Amino acid sequence: MSPRISIPLGPGRLFDGSPPPVLDPAGPYAGSITLLSWVLFAIAALVLAVVGTALWIAFFGKARTRQRLGGTMVVWAGGIVFPVVVLTALLVWGLSLTASLSAGKGDVADLRVRVTGEMWWWRVAYLDPRGDVIAWDANELHVPAGRTVLVELESGDVIHSFWVPRLSGKVDMIPGRRNFVKIQADRPGVYSGQCAEYCGGPHALMGFVVVAHEPAEFSRLLAHMAAVSREPKGGIAAEGQRLFDSAGCSACHRIAGTGANGLAGPDLTFVGRRRTLGAGILPNNRGTMMGWIGDSQAIKPGNRMPAYRVLSADHLQSLAAYLEQQK
Amino acid sequence: MLALLIGAPACEQPPQRQHFMAHASAERGRAIIARVGCASCHSIPGIDWPQGRLGPPLDEFATRTLIAGRVPNRAGELSAFVQNAPAIVPGTGMPAMPLTAEESRDVAAYLYTLRAR
């Protein structure tokens, strides 16, 4: 069991594995990176020990030993041959170990998705084999456990980096380019991610969630998501839907199957299903939903959603109730 | 005379026992507050992030007389309020939160550690 190293980010523990532990792989792609990391750490520690010992001898050793240490042979062997051999071997081994990580357009995968980095959230699209979008979502990606998922990485604005430490390495999202990364979770579970390239103000609050399901369960979920969203039910939610349009939410947010068709902000068609709000940073419940809508600037300063000071607590309740139904 | 001597300390009960709650843990309460996201709306001493502004700040909450300006600030009322605020104070802006009865007691216990330094 390798030690868990947690990254201390703003948000606290939303669920097990958040913030994401590194060097604790949950699938084959993260596994090879972790092995490589440990081997590199071990060799670095060994080299440090040898250099430290040599340094100690140079200062405090017996005259004869010091003389030997300063000989031409030692300089050639320790200064040139050893680094060349070790580094070359490591390079070859490391590249072959991580060869499976390189991903490209033509790769065969069990599922293809596109994740687009936005300031400061993630646009998610599930793709069919032809590359057409089946369903839109945001900030949370559902995948089948034990299957390889090919993720197309794009950016809508600046450079971001997609990193779900337990499932794969980090790959940059570069404007005008499409990069690829393969991820796989061996077992069902929730795996958190994080933008790994500074992208402006609330970069540290740009989290991501991957949920791995049993393959059969995932197929049902994807089929459900592909179906058109249902109309809301119940009185309070109908009020929420009216507010969603009149308060201007629909100018930036889309809810499939309704008139709300804004594309500037995260798609809310399945917001009621998400584990988190605000891009992987808050738990998703009535209170946090109201808090986010009412004054997200106090929570994630600089994000592009304004504080809605015109909405009453009743309005916030209705909107939250409406959004909870979007599953 | 003896009775006076024994009785005297009772009048000088340390203030932190004012809201004593059996079996509730302030430490657990703080973890629960962080997990359910109370701080999305309230700035709460001991919770670094977020520090929401939609609801009132909870500094020195232990010394307040009323909850939501309406009901007495006592352990029973507060535990019930943090779990299902609209049931205790109809019309409040605070929604019901996903807490068990036990968790809400822990949350209340934490709020009762908030007093002037």
Commentary on this structure:
The complex is a heterodimer of chains A (327) and B (117). Chain A is of the alpha+beta class and 327 residues long. Among the domains of chain A are: 28-101; 235-324, Cupredoxins -  blue copper proteins (Immunoglobulin-like). Helices cover 35% and strands 20% of the residues of chain A. The longest helix of chain A is centred in the first third of the chain and has 33 residues, at 28-60. Chain B has 117 residues and is mainly alpha-helical. Chain B has a single domain, classed as Cytochrome c-like domain (Cytochrome Bc1 Complex, Chain D, domain 2, Orthogonal Bundle). Chain B contains five helices and two strands. Chain B has a two-stranded antiparallel ribbon with strand order 1-2. Residues 1-10 and 12-16 of chain B have low confidence and may be disordered. The A-B interface holds A 10-14, 282-283, 285-288, 290-292, 294-295, 298-300, 312-313, 316-317, 320 and B 31, 34-38, 40-41, 48-55, 92-98.
